[in-house]
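hi! just following up on the protien thing from before. the input was this:
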Amino acid sequence: MYSNIVTTLLVIGMIVWIVLRQLRPKPVKKLFFIVLPLIALYEVYQTFPRQQVPVTQWIECILVVVAALIAGTIQAWHSKVYIQNHIVYVQGTTITLITWASFILTRIALGFAFGEFATGYHRIQWILWVGIAVIFATRSLILYAKFPEIKHVFAPSKVNG
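and the predicted 3d structure came back as:
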């Protein structure tokens, strides 16, 4: 039990760090575009209930996915992408933070509306991770599609020879 709490706090700390870090310009790296959604999916796997999931949780999950798709889309459209010294940078804005806060508040409101918090957060934690995975993946895919500069970062480098 103690190890689950520590792991959860570490992962939440990492998510907060990643969210706040979005306000600083950072070079576009394949690692963050691919690994962040994968980490969140791993957490879904780790926290997914081992028994049958009630229908209400599936409905709640669908609503969280819809909210996450909206949040990821807003984040992608309001991110700044630019080139400086031949390096492609991406930077979030205040809207990025507002979107994260809105998503988390929506998730909490849905949890209360469905009465899930009364049953124990550990039983519904997987739904939050589904939402985070969807936000990261949506944001990454839209940024990749919207900005040719990002596509060039992912293109295989050509070696003259």
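The helical segments are 2-21, 30-47, 55-77, 94-113, 125-146, 148-154.
The first strand starts at residue 26 and ends at 27.
cheers
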